């Protein structure tokens, strides 16, 4: 108890520093020692964090206001500051505007679909119990833990013009399209795949939320003769609102960074129909347009930061 | 009055609820079968011959099952080497995260020091930075440090992560100060308190962090794809992604066998540790 109080007293009296009196001097020294110990604990993280996170983040922010290209790597400080020029170029580039649209569609279509499927699964699993539930949970969650590269191989194979999906559709008399090579169907195919890969995460979060819904509330609704649909809409969903919001925000941060599916499945094609903002950024880096790419990545960062801020506010209001 | 009113209702409601449950399980089962078709199709395809793979319409069950695709991975393609790289990178990354994130988490949760708020603020901000922002400056940095195509290049950028710091700090904040004070009064130094008192209490968040980190490292491919430039440094996903875009791009039997080999270890781990995987997701909201 005293140990926690004394350093706090030391902060007030010890600031005078080197007056020869013993008490405050040792407190100041003890405080310095504690600060050193604390930074000692933080040191390994701080080193890695500074070199591999902070420097690249600051570096790419600075780059977005210069005409930095791949040729400038040898002498990074010889580049010219161009102010907001890269950002202006960006918003005049029709391909960047396309990529905004593609990411927008991916987010606006992908999120509700993922959430509805995940919610339906969570509701269905919540009523059951025991091994059967954990069996289903493992099954639906499995795509989440798998490597996108490995999964892409089998999805490309399934989505071939004469692959498994179109063979199955043909059995119902439907002539399936060339999914990944038709600009109208490539993005929907990737959304389908993203839903498949992300439903498990939301299902688990929603299940945790549903378990927290007090049983007597639903029991009371049953006693009052409410139909299952009515119970869902009027009782369960309102109680689940914080969890649903949290899930929506989490998944939107992920979907805004839409990149991997496009990278492994379509390379942004055909005809830029799956060119996301993150993929556009990656391409500009590939072209050596580091300044422009950095500007694009910061536009994306800004959007994600806004969504994340919303997330933290939601989390705080939950407590 | 109430009894006579509710009794018949519960009697009639019960069978309806039971049949409702049966229907929902039937729907769930059909859904699950569809959900897992890609995995089944992957395994079935991996044991088909090249000729059967190309046959149209596709056959469902392999007509002449063959282990040739796997033999190629275990023979000329040196699966164990890629597997070893993936495992080394993942294990060192996990170990680094467990130790370093716990250390800084302890300082942030239980110590007062100048710069603490700035440090925690920086951690929280970087939690939201999309990977694509740091990607190329990171590559420039790693090449300037002369680390390209080495284990450190694959490990160091991930050896600690803001998410892990956040996770450990949140958990450690909940450890009662009285425990630490008691140890301090016994004359224990901070390192001894950290190792002897705090860490033994941190099983659950360490398990979560370890699993999430292992999963992230095992499945990570974009950075290793750039950082590993010769075959001896490839991790499994890198090897698979290069084979699937190179001259073997249409050799689906080989690629599907590779996919099975990439997915199988993590899927096995997941089935055995599913409780921990799922608890991790439910507590952090991240995969």
**String of helices and strands of chain B:** HHHHHHHHHHHHHHH
The class by helix and strand makeup of chain B works out as mainly alpha
What is the CATH superfamily of the largest domain in chain A? MetI-like
What letter string, H or E per element, gives the SSE order of chain A?
A: HHHHHHHHHHHHH
Low-confidence stretches of chain B: 1-12
Describe this structure in words.
The complex is a heterodimer of chains A (319) and B (287). Chain A has 13 helices and no strands. Chain A is mainly alpha-helical and 319 residues long. Chain A has two domains: 2-63, no CATH class; 92-318, MetI-like (MetI-like fold), CATH 1.10.3720.10. In chain A, helix 8 (183-211) packs across helix 10 (228-256). The longest helix of chain A has 42 residues, at 22-63. Chain A is globular and about 70 Å long. Residues 1-21 of chain A have low confidence and may be disordered. Chain B has 287 residues and is mostly helical. Helices cover 75% and strands 0% of the residues of chain B. Chain B contains 15 helices and no strands. The model of chain B is unreliable at 1-12 (pLDDT under 50). Chains A and B meet through helix 1, helix 2, helix 4, helix 5 and helix 6 of A and helix 1, helix 4, helix 5, helix 6 and helix 9 of B.
